[in-house]
Amino acid sequence: MTTSELQQRLAAAIRDGADASGLLAGHYALGLQAYRHAYRARLVAALTDNFTVLARALGDEAFEALGHAYLQARPPRHPSIRWFGDGLAAFMAQAGEDLVPHPSLADFARMDWALRGAFDAAAAPLLDAAELARLAPDDWAGLVLHLQPSVQRVALTHAIEPAWRVLREWDPESGDAQPELPEPVPHAHELLAWRQGLETRWRSLEPLEAALLAAVAEGDRFAGLCERAAARLGDSEAAAPAVIGLLQRWLADGLLQSRAS
Fold this sequence. Notes:
The chain has 261 residues and is mostly helical. The chain is 52% helix and 10% strand.
C-alpha cells in the first residue's frame, strides 16, 4: 500500500468510520477512536458557531443530536469547515419530530445561514444617489441595478423573526433561563439579510419589494421593475413612485453596487 493510499484509508476511517483493519495496531487503534470523536466534536462545534440562534432554540443536547445526525447523513465534502452546514435547513425539513420538534426550526437554520453568508461575503463599491443623478432622463428605462454580494434573500415558512430576535439577544452564559418565545405562526414570506459596513442586518420583505428584488437579481431593467410594480399594484401611475421609493431605501441600506464596479 502506497503512502497516498494509506492516507486516504486513514482519512476515511476518521471521517466516515470506514474499516480500519490493518491500518493501526495496539494503542494506535485506540487513538483512532479519539480522532474520530474529536473530528465529530469539532464539526458539531462548527455547526454551533454557524447556527447560534438555532442552537439556543433547541438547547445543547437536542442541537448536538441534530448535528451528529446531519454529519452522519451528509458528511462534509468542502475543504473549508466554514461551509459545513450548507444543507442543514434542507436536512431538517425532511427530518422527523425527534430531531426537529417544530417545523419553524428549519427557518431558524435558514436565517442563521443567510446572516453568516452575508457577513462573509465580498464587498463591492456602493451605488449612491449622486451616481444615479448623473443619468440622463432617457437612460433610466434601460438602467440595470446590481445587488451587493452580501445580499441574501431567503424564503421562510413561519414568522420566526420575533422569536429569533429574543434568542439572539439572550446570553445563555448569563445563567438566565431561556426567555419565553413568541409562537412562530405559519407565514410564507421572504427575509432579506445583508451586511452594511461591518454589521449584518435583516428585515422581512413585503411582497412587492420581494418581487422587485428578485427582478433586480435576474437583471431586469428599471422599466421592467416599473412594469412589475404596475402589475402587482394594479395601478400604472403608482408604479414608478413605488419603485423610486424602494430604490431610495435600497440606496440607504447599501444593497446596491456602483455601476462602475
